[in-house]
Amino acid sequence: MIETKKIGFIGGGQMGGAIFSGIVNSGAVPACQIYITDINAQRLAELKEQYGVNTFVNDSENTGALEVIRNADIVVFAVKPQYARPLLTAVSKSFRPEQLVVSIMGGITLSFLGEFFPNNPYLRVMPNTPMQVRKGIAGIAAGPLATKEYCDLGVEMFNLVGMSYLLPENLIDPLTSVSGCSPAFAYLFIEAMADGGVEKGLPRDMAIRLAAQALAGSAEMVLQTGKHPAELKDSVCSPAGSTIVGVHALERGGFRNTVMNAVTESCDKMIEVGKKA
């Protein structure tokens, strides 16, 4: 079904770009069915040249956004949450009732969207940037008019760029902190492991690739085996071996406590952002 839909993006930044580039690269939706607007004309020109998508520069009158809305069956709002209220106030009345509204604006709740789209199906979606390489994760919460057909459409769209979960809205912010913020945590971990390798003499490029591949392979082991991470960790830790010494060093530095704090504090911040919108 998604193959027949025209998909519009209001906002062509990092997160929106990760999604539409992943969709185009999937081959399921032709580039000619993707519509993008942004205030950055240079960015749009680069996107048009790279992907062949339709682009419209947005201005103070929101002409670009209105053009996307006119063309698209699905409209994705991919702007910063602090811009949500003035933007939705300006353009929401231009929507047709059958259009699906998708918000990836952090912290913006279903009830907030409902103020502007009382006659439309809408989804609150929290994606992450690995969608650009089709390895992303999205949490999807549905508004009251989002029937199974619309929910299935949202799931199908985000499954093109990874995997998606339809879940209650109260779990969206925790999901965001685990999957949306965590790529940054993972990049820090990769960088730190690579730095350790460089200290011991590895060339930096090699150290980074080794660390990244090790992390990717370990994640795939969790996904494919279904085993608890602790069980997989134990299988690597030989008695009196080098790995258990390294694990001890991580625990001495408060590794798990620090990671848990990063997740929970990110979640709290997401809730705070939503309240200010």
Structure characterization notes:
With 277 residues, this protein is of the alpha/beta class. It folds into two domains: 2-168, 3-Layer(aba) Sandwich (Rossmann fold); 180-274, ProC C-terminal domain-like (ProC C-terminal domain-like fold, Orthogonal Bundle). The protein has helices spanning 14-26, 41-51, 63-71, 84-91, 110-116, 148-159, 172-180, 182-199, 204-225, 229-236, 242-252, 255-276; strands at residues 7-10, 34-38, 54-57, 74-77, 100-103, 122-126, 136-142, 162-166. Strands 3-2-1-4-5-6-7-8 form an eight-stranded mixed β-sheet, sandwiched between helices. Strand 1, helix 1 (14-26) and strand 2 form a beta-alpha-beta unit. Helix 7 (172-180) crosses helix 12 and helix 8 (182-199) packs across helix 9 (204-225). It is elongated, with a radius of gyration of 21 Å. The two termini are 33 Å apart. The model has no long low-confidence stretch (mean pLDDT 95).
Which key features would you list for this structure?
ProC C-terminal domain-like fold, Rossmann fold, 8 strands, alpha/beta, 277 residues, eight-stranded mixed β-sheet
User: Which radius of gyration do the C-alpha atoms yield?
Assistant: 21 Å
β-strand percent reads 5-15%
Content-based structural category: alpha/beta
Mean pLDDT: 95
**Any guess at the CATH architecture of the largest domain?**
3-Layer(aba) Sandwich
Query: Total helix count?
Result: 12
Low-confidence stretches: none
N-to-C CA distance: 33 Å
How do the strands of the widest beta sheet line up side by side? 3-2-1-4-5-6-7-8
SSE sequence, one letter per element: EHEHEHEHEHEEHEHHHHHH
- Indicate the percent of residues in helices: 40-55%
Question: What sort of overall outline do the alpha carbons produce when their principal axes are compared?
Answer: elongated
The CATH homologous superfamily of the largest domain is named: NAD(P)-binding Rossmann-like Domain
In the residues, how many domains can be counted? Answer: 2
Question: How many runs of DSSP E, i.e. beta strands?
Answer: 8
- At the first level of CATH, the class of the largest domain is Alpha Beta
Major sheet: size, sense and barrel closure?
A: 8 strands, mixed
